[in-house]
Write a structure and sequence with these properties.
homodimer, 308 residues, alpha/beta, UDP-N-acetylmuramoyl-L-alanine:D-glutamate ligase, 10-stranded mixed β-sheet, 5-stranded mixed β-sheet, 23% strand
Chain lengths: 308, 308
């Protein structure tokens, strides 16, 4: 089993959807990635920063699930990163209401000594230079470096993004971001162009329309599970990434064939995340729930056609 | 092998896409359905109407592929239905430029005597009462009646649509139409509601995002093949329906398990249709092309996860 180091925000979210609204609750990419990866019982650590206002209970929630929190710096006189957003009726788009960077503004990630030899590194969505700094702290090149990013960095730190992209194996972005980054409308053409920027594997997340994995001329597609009700999409993409990274760290097999399974695990975990507000569903998730959901994914996608 | 009777337009199309534009070329739902179904060498007949301006070559193109055209009425002093449309840059939306109903305005479908015992009936998109009239001409209730429709009939002939829906087994509509027909946003909830209107099987077509098959609590998903270039989406939905109906007529197995395969065949054939203008790709399609494409669909979707 490989060690997994995760960098990403640990934050407060306040969310409004057609189904209701929350006060400040636990959120952040690092949190969702860590919770998803914890399903695989790998040795993982989250590298992040919070303020003195961050409840110990929230940190315990991660460490109780075998996620090392020693890399989460606590700035006692600072405030935790806060994001608030409101989803539209179709749940596919949202408005950001508040973004308070707070302690994140001067975040300088420090990888715990015992995780500098981790084989898998999951770089959650942050400034590309922050992501690069984590990679540079590793004692040796990881076997697998996965990067998540977003259009914001393409708009305001594109050269830095290009730089970190040269050092990673897998990039996960959504379809619109893939188009923006590549200048190509077709996702097949976009993935091919993104390959030339560094990552050998390109995962394009299409939300309710599933996810595509590209590697050279190979493609694999995992649908999102059609749900009766999507309650809160916050964290679904990070949960996908955490499931993907956690499965690969657990199995130590970084082949395309195994990545197909990782995409299915990521999709299955993400399908739980959206069922409740914030992390609520993920912290109550049992191994048997996951097993049943994976069975549902098989039912949804597998068919028998004999070809000669 | 079952006989298949198809009702649908046989028409002229003029199409403009970012890749070019055509003069009047062969089009129409009945044409695309017939061409797709012809891949399965079933006994099929298209019931339609054309004007005296319709070239014999176009009719021969169907009959050469074992599609019976004796149910295509030729109104010598009338003009063939003509549709012209222009696709936007993303190819997902289009504007209709011209719709000339011509002989379609007084279309009274007549099922050839030798097809009144067909086991499979494919009702292409037409006025619901026209679709119903075909069903009523059958000597006995078909083993499988499939209906394709669109938002236009929901807007202007909803009660008639409800009437014909009570007599069919499968409905194929797109995601927006499923939402309009059911008043439900979630496609899972939409399909459940549409079941109560008649059809036991609901196929929701999501264009580049694939297709979903619903039956009671069972779901199956087939992606669209991600393509380097979509040249002309015209006829893709009808080609899907023709592949679906043709496969089921060929195999005479109307179970959910076999319908899953039919959805894959439909998706595979539709992925060819969009590669060229109009029917160009479909008339040049070889069995070996289809075999290879089905292999690509397996590669795209099949995975091995052992669950206990």
């Amino acid at each position: 089993m490989s060690k997994l180091v995760i960098v990403g925000t640990v934050a407060f979210d306040a969310i409004e959807t057609p189904f209701g609204k929350t006060d400040k609750i636990l959120g952040g990419a690092g949190t969702f990635i860590g919770l998803a990866a914890s399903q695989f019982n790998v040795d993982s650590a989250v590298v992040s920063v919070v303020g003195g206002d961050f409840p110990q209970d929230y940190l315990d929630l991660l460490s109780d699930r075998n996620v090392d929190t020693s890399g989460i710096e606590i700035v006692q006189d600072g405030k935790t990163f806060f994001w608030s957003g409101k989803y539209h009726n179709d749940m596919n788009s949202r408005d950001t209401l508040v973004t308070e960077l707070n302690v994140l503004e001067h975040f300088n990630p420090v990888v715990p000594e015992s995780y500098k030899d981790a084989e898998v590194v999951m770089l959650g969505n942050l400034h590309p230079m922050t992501q690069l700094s984590v990679l540079k702290q590793m004692n040796k090149k990881p076997k697998l470096a996965i990067l998540d990013t977003m259009n914001f960095w393409m708009d305001c730190a594109l050269d830095d993004l290009y730089t970190v992209m040269k050092h990673i194996d897998v990039i996960t972005i959504n379809d619109e971001e893939a188009r923006q980054l590549s200048g190509e409308y077709s996702l097949v053409a976009a993935a091919r162009k993104i390959h030339t920027m560094g990552p050998q594997y390109v995962v394009i997340k299409k939300g309710e329309h599933g996810a595509l994995l590209f590697h050279d001329e190979h493609m694999f597609y995992a649908p999102a599970l059609p749900l009766e009700e999507v309650f809160d999409p916050t964290g679904a993409g990070d949960t996908f990434a955490g499931g993907f990274a956690g499965f690969l760290a657990k199995t130590e097999d970084y082949s395309f064939e195994n990545m197909k399974k990782a995409v299915i695990y990521g999709s299955a975990l993400a399908s739980f995340c959206v069922e409740k507000f914030g992390t609520e569903r993920m912290v109550n998730l049992k191994a048997d729930d996951v097993r049943k959901r994976l069975h549902a994914f098989k039912q949804l996608t597998q068919f028998e056609i004999e070809l000669t």
